Amino acid sequence: MAKITFDGIEIEVPDGTTILNAARQIGGGIVPPAMCYYTPLKGSGGKCRACLVKVSAGSAKDPRPMPKLVASCITTVQDGMVVENTINEQVMDVRKGIVEMLLINHPLDCPVCDQAGECSLQDFAFEHGLSTTRYEEERRTFEKIDIGPLIQLHMTRCILCYRCVYVADQLTPERVHGVLGRGDASEIGTYIENIIDNDFSGNVIDVCPVGALTDKTFRFKQRVWFTKPVNAHRDCETDKCNGHVTLWYKGKDVLRVTARKDEYGEVKEWICNTCRFDKKETSDWTLEGPAHINRASVIAQNHYELPVVNPQVILDLPESTTRELERNPPLRLGGLNN
Amino acid sequence: MGRKLLTEHINVEGINTFEVYRKHGGYRSVEKALKTMTPDEVTEEVKKSGLRGRGGAGFPAGMKWGFLAKPEGVPRYLVCNADESEPGTFKDRQLMTKLPHLLIEGMITGSYALGARTSYIYIRGELLYVLRILEKAIAEAYAAGFLGENILGSGYSLDLHVHPGAGAYICGEETALLESLEGKRGNPRNKPPFPAVQGLYARPTVVNNVETIAAVPIIVNEGGDEYAKIGIGKSTGTKLISACGHLNKPGIYEIELGLPVEEFIYSDEYCGGIWKGRELKAVVAGGSSVPILPKELILKTAAGENRLMSYESLSDGGFITGTMLGSGGFIAMDETTCIVKNTWNFSRFYHHESCGQCSPCREGTGWLEKVLHRLEHGHGSMHDIDLIVSVAKQIEGNTICPLGEAAAWPVAAAVRHFRHEFEWHVTNPKEATVPGAVYRGAAVLA
């Protein structure tokens, strides 16, 4: 175990934990933002530099400060380490700079982007960015690339976090897309036009922090904050998929299906394409109850984290579920108290 | 006349062949090390010599060797970084073309010291003809029993391979080089873990510059203490300087560290002064990524002392009034040089060579280039001058690898020392955009 001080708060975590994950155990506003790091994906992190923090004491043994800011997502804790994030002015300045860099070539097309409302870049920019830009040059644009009937790749929005590359490497038998080109001409692509087609390819949509990879079956259907997330499950026949998902309802229609994400947008259980794209009827699923929505999320603007018995939710749930609810006391809703 | 250690025999006819090289005392260090010294004793000599990495960072080579993890039963590697691509630097190419056996000798002795059984020379893709020279020399060394199984009957075996890159500057960064050598995209790795613990194929690895490795035979032959006597202070030994730009005699010079910069530029033994009888304006002393210095500051430090060609003297005054020895790419610019154009040109290079992995460098290098392009072409504003300094600051220190700094330093330094010139481009766009136009006012001293 290692004891570290993060923004003045002491916490003890197992050796080998990264600074970011230690901060997440504390939780709240002191957690550094992470645009490229994704806990379940091995090798991810270190690229976006959004999570840079100041290590003002390396360890109890060697209390010298680290000379440069370090990426908290890939730097592991040492016993006696002292880390400064929100309390350090330099860190906050650098973070502003990172937002600026990430945005100079971003199209800022949130009004027409499906990711808006659940976009890491949007949240990051809202929290740390400026409302003006110093960038006068033409922005980098790419042609949309067709990578099959289910997923839309819109490179112009991409921040090159490499998450989708890791997903393809680690979840699917064969990776057919990757990063092509160099510098600010880098792009995600398949080189020769190719379809990304395998049972788990849809997960690239969930890991994409921005709107670069979107679900073609959901495109332009609805703003996410007008939809209601409900956790559900089914017995999935696909190997390695256990069918635990979030259904996004508008009225009685399931508009899209995603994997369940935690408060940092990370998927713990990957789902297969059958669950994601083909099962869009309530009858396909066993409903568990409303999904937890972070109060800070834009989705919460229209859809607060609800007490389990909120009548509004019940109204919006499909009939079969409401009948079920009437039969069973509302407290049993949520799947936790069963 | 300074001592020549690396290039003593460089002009001997046929020195690139094994026979002639051997006749001139070649491969003595291999015999000495393998027959009379333990690997640790070789490392100890290198430590004593005070040899510092010649690739640019100037990190003590012996200390780097000492950091190498040596777990039982795990292979270790020595990798030679021959991906010389810093603008203004061309010493390694010459060394390998003329003296391929010196590098091979260094690789054998170094590999023995580190306990490596397989070693690699990673050479930049543009130098295919040098790769062929090296391969021929390696074949000769194999035939003579200096490579392969049981070298000189000592029981030590070594295989040496040459691997060409595909011409990316970033592959000169040691972890990007290792990625590339493994057959992957040449993206720098996050550190830690450092190569000394997890390098090539996740095994302990030392990556050294060509010139560093070429110095090892000399150190082993003469002894570390003897080597340390050459040079000045912590800058020991000799260094190859690639002198280019507006000099009477550009070329590669082996100097003893500690040579006054003034002597290096103006004496007939070295560069022979500025060409066409012109005045020196500025110098980039260590390859394009180090800060540019105006004449006044490259010849004398801010304190008025003579500036010497050494790691310490060149960095005297930090980045406010100093620079770095870097890789020894000495670019001299005469009074007709436009600093704005030059900075834009450097910036264009880094924009082109950024790997695009981390956001500050990927976006920032392009931004810098575009604003500098605007300034150079007379469309800039005063605000743009502060903007490039601020963008450079946002890149510096926040990236995965030093390419970010390499892109930021020249820009920041150019504005620091030649701000008037940038301002002149803004206030006199018509004059400034005439081909060959140069601001003739005085440089701004910090």
Describe the structure.
The complex is a heterodimer of chains A (338) and B (446). Chain A has 338 residues and is α+β, with helices and mostly antiparallel strands. Chain A folds into three domains: 2-95, Ubiquitin-like (UB roll) (Roll), CATH 3.10.20.740; 105-131 and 139-215, Alpha-Beta Plaits; 224-332, no CATH class. Helices cover 20% and strands 18% of the residues of chain A. Chain A is built from eight helices and 14 strands. In chain A, a hairpin with a 2-residue loop joins strand 12 (244-250) and strand 13. In chain A, helix 2 (89-104) packs across helix 3. Chain A starts with a strand and ends in an 11-residue tail after the last helix. In chain A, 44% of the residues are buried. Chain B has 446 residues and is an alpha/beta fold. Chain B folds into three domains: 18-229, NADH-ubiquinone oxidoreductase 51kDa subunit (Rossmann fold, 3-Layer(aba) Sandwich), CATH 3.40.50.11540; 234-334, Ubiquitin-like (UB roll), CATH 3.10.20; 339-432, Up-down Bundle (de novo design (two linked rop proteins)). Chain B contains 19 helices and 13 strands. Chain B has a five-stranded mixed β-sheet. A four-stranded parallel β-sheet of chain B has the order 3-2-1-4, with helices on both faces. Chain B has a two-stranded antiparallel sheet with strand order 5-6. In chain B, helix 2 (28-36) crosses helix 9, helix 16 packs antiparallel against helix 17 (382-395) and helix 16 (359-376) packs parallel to helix 18. Chain B is globular. Chains A and B meet through helix 2 of A and helix 15, helix 16 and helix 17 of B. Chain B: This is NADH-quinone oxidoreductase subunit F. Chain B: Its EC number is 7.1.1.-.
